[in-house]
Design a protein that fits this description.
The chain is an alpha+beta fold. The chain has 2 domains: 2-104 and 245-254, Alpha-Beta Plaits (2-Layer Sandwich), CATH 3.30.70; 106-238, Alpha-Beta Plaits (2-Layer Sandwich). The protein is 22% helix and 29% strand. The chain is built from 6 helices and 10 strands, in the order βαββαβββαβββααβα. The chain has helices at residues 27-39, 72-82, 137-145, 195-207, 215-222, 260-263; strands at 2-10, 46-47, 56-66, 87-95, 105-116, 129-131, 149-152, 167-178, 181-188, 237-244. Strands 1, 2, 3, 4, 5, 6, 7, 8, 9 and 10 form a 10-stranded mixed sheet that branches. α1 (27-39) crosses α2 (72-82) and α3 packs across α4.
Length: 266
């Protein structure tokens, strides 16, 4: 058996998230089907971080085991030939059997793209979140600084979250403006279910003036989801990449630089 790691990007707007479901139409379902066409056998894929319905990925890393020998190029171009146009494998390579896409990851990065304009977007529909009132990005960045370090994120955790602990270490929390777009970036050891969308919702409340930046620290201390802001739309959320130790010899340690199309907005 050989373990193969691969990286893929996808537009999640028309899919029911990553995880396989009985009715199909998930990223895992279409990827396993496409890989099976190349391998000639059913393959099971494990990813670094499952994404919800409507959430996109710039650099999702996954792995699978197979006894079939294929050149690396076949796992990329051959698989892409059987994938829908909204999903593409970027690279694939053999890795040691000890490598695990999820458990070997050092950190994961999410980006949220918010269109901050009085009129809702049309061409970017499904690719960005939207908020109509002008936001105070400076206040939002101060608020985001309260999220750093090891924290109990119970106030930003979905009720159906299955994580064993709400304690997560946030390495980076940034908010910046680029024209009419506000970009949020979060890097952490791991994330809770809906955590990023809940963080964005709370920071937007700060940005529109409903609460001061210190409100974020109060929410963390209270550990009460009912006191925080509503969960924000999945449309602008991107699983941006995963970081691994250098000894796994993955391209850029698994981290992804946005393609030319997305670089201007990220």
């Amino acid at each position: 058996m050989v373990r193969i790691a691969l990286c893929l990007e996808y537009d999640g707007a028309s899919f029911h998230g990553w995880q396989s479901q009985p009715e199909g139409n998930t990223i895992q379902d279409v990827l396993e089907s496409a890989l099976g066409c190349v391998a000639g056998e059913r393959l099971r894929v494990v990813c670094a971080g499952r994404t919800d319905a409507g959430v996109h990925a710039l650099g999702q890393v996954a792995h699978f085991d197979t006894a079939v020998s294929r050149p690396d190029s076949a796992w990329v171009r051959g698989t892409n030939a059987h994938l829908p146009p909204q999903v593409a494998v970027r690279w694939a390579q053999p890795v040691p059997e000890e490598f695990h896409a999820r458990f070997s990851a050092r950190s994961r990065t999410y980006r949220y793209l918010l269109y901050n304009h009085p009129v809702r977007p049309a061409l970017d529909h499904g690719k960005v979140g939207w908020f109509h009132h002008e936001l105070d990005v400076a206040a939002m960045q101060v608020a985001a600084s309260h999220l750093l370090g090891l924290q109990d994120f119970s106030a930003f955790r979905a009720a159906e979250c299955q994580a064993k602990s709400p304690l997560k270490t946030l390495h980076r929390a940034e908010v910046r403006r680029s024209g009419d777009r506000v970009v949020f970036e979060f890097c952490a050891s791991a994330f809770l279910h809906h955590m990023v969308r809940n963080l964005v919702g709370a920071l937007v409340y700060v940005g529109k003036g409903s609460h001061p930046p210190e409100w974020i620290a109060e929410l963390l201390a209270a550990r009460d989801r009912t006191r925080a802001a509503p969960t924000f739309s999945p449309a602008g959320l991107y699983f941006a990449g995963v970081e691994y130790e250098s000894h796994w010899q993955l391209p850029d340690k698994g981290l992804i630089i946005p393609s030319a199309t997305l670089a201007t907005i990220f």
